[in-house]
Amino acid sequence: MSSLSLPFYQKYHRHYDRGYRNTQLSSTMQEYRQEEKRSTAAHTHRVRSKFSDEMLETSSGSPQMKRAKQDYYSKGKENEAVDYIVPVFRGRHERASEITSSKDERTKQSKSSHFAGEFHYAQSNITEEHNIERSAMDKSRKVAIRESAERISLNKQIYDTQDFQKRLREDSLLRLPEFIIKPRSHTVWEKQSVKLHCTVSGWPVPRVTWYKNNVTINVHTDPGKYIIDSKYGVHSLEINNCDFDDTAQYRASAMNAKGEISAFASIVVKRFKAEHGDLSFHPGRIAPPSYDYFPGDPHMKFEVHFVDKFDVSFGKEGDTMSLGCTVIVHPNLKRFQPEIQWWRNGVQLQPSKWVEMHWSGETATLTFNHLNKEDEGLYTIRVLTKSGYELHSAYVFVRDADAEVAGAPGAPLDVYCLDANKDYVIVTWKQPAIDGGSSILGYFVDRCEVGTNHWVQCNDTPVKFARFPVTGLVEGRSYIFRVRAVNNVGISRPSRVSEPVAALDPSDRARLKGIPLAPWTGQIIVTEEEPTEGVVPGQPTEVAVTEATRNYVVLSWKPPGQRGHEGIMYYVEKCVAGTEDWQRVNPEIPVKSPRFALFDLVEGKSYRFRVRSANSAGIGEPSEPTEFTEVTDKLDVPKAPSHVVPSRNTDTSVVVTWEESKDAKELVGYYIEASISGSGKWEPCNNKPVKGKRFICHGLQNGQLYKFRVRAVNAAGLSQFSHESEALEVKAALAPPTPPYAITVLESVRDSMVLGWKQPKFQGGSDITGYFVDYREVIDGIPGKWKEANIKALTERAYRIHDLKENMVYQFQVRAINMAGVGLPSPPSEKFKCEEWTIAVPGPPHDVMYTEVRKNSLVLLWKAPVYIGRSEVTGYYADIREADADDEKWRSVNEKETSNRYIKVQGLKEGMSYVFRVRAVNRAGVGKPSDLTEPVTAETPPGTKEIAVNVDDDGVISLTFECADMAEGSKFIWSKNYEDLVDSSRVTVETKGGKTKIIFNDPGKDDLGIYSCVVTETDGVSSSYAIDEAELLHLLELSHERKFPVVPLKSELAVELLEKGQVRFWLEAERLSPNGQCKFVFNDKEVKNDEKHKIKVDHKTGLVEMIMEKLEDTNEGTYTVQLQDGKASNQSSLVLIGDVFKNLQKEAEFQRGEWLRKQGPHFVEYLGWEVNNDCSVLLKCKVANIKKETSIIWYKDDREIMFDEKHDFKDGVCTLLVQQFSKKDAGVYELVLKDDRGRDSSTLRLLEKAFGDVISEVCRAAAQTATDLKVQSTEHGIRIYSFVTYYLDDLKIIWYHKDTKLASTDRVKSGVTGEQLWLQINEPTEKDKGTYTLELFDGKAGHKKSVELSGTVFDEAFAEFQRLKQAAIAEKNRARVIGGLPDVVTIQEGKSLNLTCNVWGEPVPTVSWLKNDRELLGDAHLILKFESGKFASFTITDVRTTDSGKYSILVKNKYGTETGDFTVSVFIPEEEEQQIEQEKGAKKK
Question: How many helices, marked H, and strands, marked E, lie in the chain?
């Protein structure tokens, strides 16, 4: 942006006062006003023509016009002239970090500079203008005024045109956002408001977003809190009613299509201390004189603690991952919150599209939206407070995403752009750790122009070198790049894209030197030395080849000391070795930067290079040529590392060290791989190269043997693998134990004290072999020197220290020792006084510990107190409370004291933490409680196994325990009643691998007790098994069975009959080996397998059977089966004599007959009956073995029942349907089946009781079909009725009114009409109200239906009865025509017509006659009579044709009206004959 171009709003906006502007802005404003004055004061024709010519040259846009030295005078102060020189082509302000990245913008800036030069030229001729004005004074006043007016008009026109074109060009070119004025920081009082301002330029108009601590400000979340305004490029953020939470860093981010830029400002909100007292602060009020202690005082110390810390994490490319931990700061002051920083490999991270940071005030999280291998590394959270900082670190591993093609390599990583020029960029990357199983052939580089999604592959063939020059870029445009690896199988996924890079000449960057004038403006002063003019440049110096590969060569040189008129450009020339033919590499386009990359050189050939300088004055002499350079890779693949040594670290990690590759150049790092020994499968430990010669490999399997190997990486490729390391088992490294703790006094006498303590929480990976105790005297609060209490290590955690001084105060410390050495001493104990204890109750038990922790129980162990009091200890009480509960929550585990030094605590809540203590009891009472145990959570560890009891085949009883989590030095320790086994002769312990067994040599009562087993060097793996008298008895019985085994039987010997009448003897054993033997014995004689006796033994199922074809009289006796399987045996007998044998024999004969019957058509189910829902009776049976020729015949009382159709044996069922079953259907029914194979019949007797049962069932079915009672009104009264599907006389009907049986009377009658059952109540009265019940008795039970005839039901029925009754009377007495009138009367003219009809009605109706709906009156021609109130006559004495028509008789009384219609047709005889003839003629046609 030109220094003379200033947005108008900066001039007129009221916010931009003088105090807010900086020095350069004030100077620019003054230059703007002075230039405006000079443009209107230029009035000579020479100046006009000069400006016109320059305007034309400017509009052509040529940047190569010659310029003389130009300077102008501007006034820095009102009356003082300051010489200000604007360098050519440098009249604009740019920030070095925001270089224009397009060719169009550089053209625009060049033209803007040209305009600035023209203004400077005009200003340099001010003196000449004054001279012209003085000469004009000699002319006439009129001429002078005219010339002056012309000059003013022309200058104004030129200025307006120039300003228009300038603004037009600026608007047509895209520009990066730029902060003209940045927001400044503020310090305000609480409850005040503050406003941040900034001014932004750029095209398109940038969009400004405000952030608070990198979180977007949303005005809708807290309405009225924030006000964001944007007008005319001025953007503001107003914060109302500030409080301490508003103390933060605020950021204004401006973004348009060209990019994004940010500016920062801080707001600090202060508070008056008086607000905590009676005084309250208001803006403008003087602060009270006294303040509280300021938390920011350097003596204030903040303690930082990390809770729920993140650990080593593993992810995969493309996954989402969050690292977080809870940060506790003490003291927690709201106004002084800590600063949270995240670092990766020593580099601080900032929020980006890849990572998000969040701090809630308690929890800090770092979130990866899309994991990449570039994210792998050591992550550190740093919490900064006023008094320092605290750190926590953990490694994050990111493995490759699954390949799109199985066997393809992993994606490259760390794609970066080097040596960006206007038409090429050198892209570099790191090789992946995974090659997919075959060597990587090379890499493809892709580019994409920023703002598009179109990727273009830059190389046709894969390149092996991890650095590649990309050519063919468009100057001024920005690009991003990515890389893909390829092997024989396929192509990898693309790498993460690089940061955008602009294709610009390096000289455009190098000549921009920026010095910010103020931290909030970001403006830059641009300077450049004034060049000389008209001199051909000299020779470039120090031409050298800085980089050479098989694909390209990079040259660099220094500019010549002697320079020409304009900026220097260069031509590069090359010469092949063995020739003197110099060939210009860039004949058409010279380069501006002293650095150039040459492509398309022949691999293997040697070249020399030289450079010439050039400007508008000419081309200079060539530089000294370089030495011959061979076109080949100068960088070699590094050598393999050596001496790979793994060492133990933790249960799942190993530290690997190695010697670095020798003579390695440009080393990128190392890849480490691990393999389970013997598997032959190698897996990468890191997916991002690591530097140094030491790395911790995480995620290994505990207890497995691993081998490791390392290879180095540089741009040339990956080295060979190092030699494999020695196999190392993964487990925690040995270390000295941590200090013991909780030192307490167990007994004190005049000259000695007994100490107790707890074992270290971390044993260092090895058993603790002993302890050392030190003590020191404390005199007047001043401790003395430490003295050793023991020289030989102690094996117990209780020790008596002798030769102490009575009433002297002592302090103690304890150190533990293991195989790794002696650990650190514990902190000094409390001060204890050596004096005689005289209390009566016992001292505290000690060494309280827990074992066998499960989700709802554990076992508590302790040792007896050293000081027993004045009497022997008689028992103990164990106490329990939740870990976070108060001391008032202690409760006893056992209500009665226990003499054991162990107790099983049950009833725990899963997931809850508890602490325990123990108290000893003697005759004097309950003693002091022991120290508390460590909190323990009630949960069953995963993979927990319990002790199992086993009795083998020899009857040996044993207890077995297994452990899958044993360490190298783990041991099984067996105990009885939680004490060492004293009598080892009673048991034998056998241990092999992860399994141990304790064998009882001679089980007896002496072996009763609780047997427990503990596995050392584990996380409390233990279990127990209790053997009481009942359990011992059960085990002894089981042992006897195993010593003297029998063949177990599922069932004893049994007999059953088969279908053919065969007899089957069978027995089933629980198990029978293939060598098992069986014998059948009958009356002490063995039965052999023959045709009569078929013996079969199934060893798989244990089934033994013998089948006899026929049971004869000689087969009566005792049957026995004898089994022998190894040393196990058994037998079972069955006695078949007397009635038992005869019944079995009779049943066998019957079964045989049945089998013979079933060889032909036969009945599976014999004839039976059932009643259907429609009350019909269905006779049915089921038959089998039917074929087409089988005939079926039904009989009733020995008379065949004939059917029209042949019976269909569907589903083997034969049926006979009897509709409306009644007494006539009683009889004997028979069904006969027969064909050539045999005959079978079935008889059903439906007589007497059987018939009664059927009738009763039919009645029951009919009664169940009865509908609900309904009420119906009739002209005689009220009828209550119900319908049944079928009614028969056997169905008894009883009506009840209010539980009283109704008898039939004249007024109340009941009956059956078809299927309707009714009760008629004639002339009902109020007494007829109530409940009516219909009972249908089927002979066995009654079925009732009821209806309530009262209230509304009765009223409505009675009203309807009255209506119907009246309607019946009206219908009976209604006037009506009974008969006598014909429909049509045909009569000859001249005849007499006499018609008579009967009329009825009470009272007697009136009669009138109508013709064609008009009433007729009697006369001589028409005689009308009505006699006796019954007979109406109609007589026409002399019929004429006019008498033809429609006649009606109308009878009427008070009950109704009725009409009778007839038609009279009068004809002339001749006409009738003609009519007849016409009708006959029409019929013939």
Answer: 12, 100
Buried b (16+ CB within 10 A) or exposed e, 898-933: eeebbbebeebeeeebbbbbbbbbbeeeebebbbeb
1457 near 1375, Cβ under 8 Å?
Answer: yes
Residue 731 above 70 pLDDT?
yes
Say if residues 1221 and 1253 touch (Cβ distance below 8 Å). Answer: no
The pLDDT score that the predictor gives to residue 413 is 94
pLDDT tens-place string over residues 633-657 = 778 889 999 999 999 888 899 999 9
Contact of 28 with 3, CB cutoff 8 Å: yes
Q: Which residues on neighbouring strands pair with residue 1462, listed in sequence order?
A: 1447
Which residue type sits at 1447? Y
8 A C-beta contact, residue 965 and residue 953: no
- Of the candidates 480, 489, 447, 445, the one whose C-alpha atom is nearest the C-alpha of residue 466 is 445
Residue type, 199: T
Report how far residue 653's alpha carbon sits from residue 694's, in angstroms, rounded to the nearest whole number.
13
Please answer whether residues 1311 and 1227 qualify as being in contact, where contact means their C-beta atoms are separated by less than 8 angstroms: no
Strands 363-368 and 798-801: unpaired
State how far Cα 196 lies from the chain centre.
42
How far is residue 535's CA from residue 619's CA, in Å, rounded to a whole number? 10
Q: Smallest Cα–Cα separation from 1235: which of 1285, 1185, 1309? A: 1185
Tokens matching residue 1076: 């098992």
Q: Helix/strand/coil (H, E, C) string of 555-622?
A: EEEECCCCCCCCCCEEEEEEEECCCCCEEECCCCCCECCCEEEECCCCCCCEEEEEEEEEECCEEEEE
In the block, residue with structure tokens 């089934």: 1103
Q: What is the DSSP string of 1396-1445?
A: EEEEE-SSPPEEEEEETTEE----SSEEEEEETTTEEEEEESS--GGG-E
pLDDT tens-digit readout, 396-441: 999 999 988 889 999 999 999 987 877 778 899 999 999 888 899 9
- Residue 288: strand, helix, or coil: coil
Within 10 angstroms of residue 736's Cβ, the number of other Cβ atoms is 21
Surface-to-core class of residue 578, CB atoms within 10 Å of its CB (0-12 exposed, 13-18 middle, 19+ buried) = exposed
**pLDDT tens digit string along 272-285?**
644 333 333 333 33
Instruction: Kindly list the distances between the CA atom of residue 1424 and the CA atoms of 632, 896, 1392, 1437, in Å, as whole numbers in the listed order.
Output: 147, 130, 14, 11
Q: pTM to 2 decimals?
A: 0.46
- Note the pLDDT tens digit of each residue in 156-181: 778 777 776 666 555 556 788 889 89
Rounded mean pLDDT of the chain? Answer: 81
Cα separation of 482 and 469, whole Å?
13
**Other residues' Cβ atoms within 10 Å of the Cβ of residue 1473:** 10
Distance, in Å, from the CA atom of 1330 to the CA atom of 1271, rounded to the nearest integer, reads 13
